[in-house]
């Protein structure tokens, strides 16, 4: 294999790999945070619904929580949308990483000699 081409391939892969891995790690962290936020919103929503049910049974002087519950449900929907977008971005990033590795391997096999022993055994005539 041509050492220059191999060095160039390794250099490009070396440049891209840290960026891809860093982005992948950040996407995964964000997805975890989104899942935690979604769980907290679910918990808060259930608490507010319990308060609303108790409010309907009790006195009429308590504050109306309907607007707060609607805002929470709206926020939950947006969190789910963002989580789905992040999942799609991470899937695309994983495909790019996989395709890059596949292309590097393909180019490496194309550049390597078919039979390394034949190249070494050819002796020029003197």
Task: Report on this structure.
This protein is mainly α and 126 residues long. It has one domain: Up-down Bundle (Single alpha-helices involved in coiled-coils or other helix-helix interfaces). Helices cover 85% and strands 0% of the residues. It is built from 3 helices and no strands. It has helices at residues 3-57, 66-111, 116-121. Helix 1 (3-57) runs antiparallel to helix 2. The longest helix is centred in the first third of the chain and has 55 residues, at 3-57. The chain is rod-shaped.
Tell me the distance between the termini.
27 Å
Derived structural class? mainly alpha
Shape: rod-shaped
Largest sheet: none
Q: Overall pLDDT, averaged? A: 79
Unreliable spans: 118-123
CATH class: Mainly Alpha
Q: How large is the share of residues in beta strands?
A: under 5%
Helix content: over 70%
**CATH architectural group:** Up-down Bundle
Count of the domains: 1
What are the secondary-structure elements, in order, as H or E?
Answer: HHH
